[in-house]
Design goal:
Length: 432
């Protein structure tokens, strides 16, 4: 398809073409500066470069084609929405979280200025009419996680058909699981209604296997990043996870496995993207939606290397698989319920298992220090940062916390703090 065909496609989605052009050009520039300037990138990243260059082009065309075949498009903002149910209903699932400032003024007509950037951004992208993914959706699925999101959905649903799932706030009681199972059943019904299909045992089995295969490929990538020297930059690995939320799942899994084959060779040959004594960082905290590359970019430009993300766009998204043993519909739904109840989002209280996960991941990835990243005004993660800090120090792992939004204005200030942290790590008597 040529440029004019894409413009016609965007027009048919009622995008504001001028604002959209501006956004694509800023993104292209940022991608060039942050990504294409990196040295010794694995060959397999060529696919990711292609996906990013076509993020509003070819993939949207694929969504158009899917719609022409009668498939429905479901948009999500959160790990709690089981992709398995969408795929089992012959639907297409796309992540809608965005990591860039757009339409901020429009968003502030509905939500307060001091709202987390992720929420403001999804409101802004919709209101400024710059996101072809949102516009392609037949149903947007929200969830009652943090207060900011659930109140923002009340505004969002004025513009798009929505279904909001109720998420329990605790996990310790039978009532919490019962609520979650009822919500999974309610979502299944709504998806079937919108998709005009019935989820069968066969289709759900296939969907569970498909999504597990994607998670296994991402787990494989995570394991390879534990090698010293690290065979891939944190920026590139983050991009892989970001793309997992909107690419075709089968193609994505195959491409990530190819990338991992390539990385396996690098590891065998001792080839890394940074010297073996480079300070290794685990990033923990709020999700970094595409194109929010700010903090890993600063870390890696300051002489560190990011070796893992303890976040929803990271390990939390692929750590656990859905059990594949069940063969009845109810058994499979129970397996989905149980797998999704393991998500250790800071919206839960208490959420102590997250502390164990952060430490386990820091150890498995051989991280020298933890950078806790929270989006400014994100109460769950800014609050939980104190507990993570205490636990990390008790385990002897250096820790620093950063709170920021999507603007570039505080890059210098963050860089100064990151550089000081990396210096501290470089001086520590650890076997790097
Ligand atoms: S499971 S982390 S994807 S809710 S950053 S909007 S928490 S104020 S994104 Fe999340 Fe699901 Fe939890 Fe994961 Fe609110 Fe915080 Fe904003 Fe957040």
């Amino acid at each position: 398809m040529g440029e004019q065909d894409y413009r016609d496609m965007w027009k048919s989605l009622d995008l504001d073409l001028d604002v959209h052009d501006g956004l694509l050009s800023v993104l292209g520039q940022f991608y060039g500066d942050a990504y294409l300037s990196q040295e010794d990138r694995p060959e397999g990243m060529g696919y990711l470069d292609f996906v990013v260059s076509e993020v509003h082009g070819l993939r949207i065309k694929e969504l158009f084609d899917a719609k022409a075949e009668g498939k429905k498009i479901f948009g999500t903002f959160c790990l709690f929405v089981p992709e398995e149910l969408v795929l089992a209903a012959n639907g297409v699932c796309v992540g809608l979280c965005s990591g860039a400032d757009a339409g901020m003024a429009e968003a502030e007509e509905y939500i307060p200025r001091n709202t987390c950037a992720l929420i403001k951004s999804f409101m802004g992208f919709k209101l400024a009419r710059v996101c072809p993914y949102v516009e392609s959706c037949d149903l947007v699925i929200g969830e009652t996680t943090c207060d900011g999101k659930k109140k923002a959905y009340e505004a969002f649903e004025q513009f798009k058909p929505m279904h909001v799932m109720e998420i329990p706030q605790m996990k310790n009681y039978a009532a919490d699981r019962a609520l979650w199972k009822a919500e999974i059943m309610r979502l299944k019904e709504r998806i079937e209604e919108v998709a005009g299909t019935t989820i069968t045992e066969e289709s759900l089995t296939a969907a569970i296997k498909k999504v597990n295969a994607k998670r296994l490929a991402l787990q494989r990538l995570r394991k390879l990043r534990s090698a010293k020297p690290a065979p891939i930059s944190g920026l590139d690995a983050l991009l892989v996870t970001q793309v997992s939320f909107y690419d075709d799942p089968d193609r994505f899994t195959a491409k990530v496995n190819e990338l991992c084959d390539d990385l396996e060779q690098r590891v065998e040959q001792g080839i890394g993207v940074a010297p073996p004594d480079t300070p290794r960082i685990l990033l923990a905290g709020s999700p970094m939606a595409i194109p929010n590359w700010k903090v890993p970019l600063i870390i890696e430009q300051s002489g560190g290397i990011v070796v893992g993300e303890e976040a929803c766009i990271g390990d939390r998204g692929f750590r656990d698989l859905v059990d594949e043993d069940a063969s009845t519909m109810d058994g499979m739904l129970d397996s989905i319920v149980d797998r999704y109840m393991k998500i250790d989002c800071a919206c839960f209280t208490p959420n102590d298992e997250r502390l164990d996960h952060v430490i386990d991941l820091a150890r498995s990835q051989k991280a020298d220090g933890i950078v806790h990243y929270a989006i400014q005004f994100c109460t769950p993660y800014t609050m939980e940062a104190f507990k993570v800090d205490k636990r990390a120090r008790a385990e002897g792992i250096p820790f620093v916390k950063i709170e920021t939004d999507y603007s570039m204005e505080d890059m210098g200030q963050i860089k100064t703090r990151v550089e000081a942290f990396l210096e501290q790590l470089a001086e520590m008597p650890v076997a790097r």
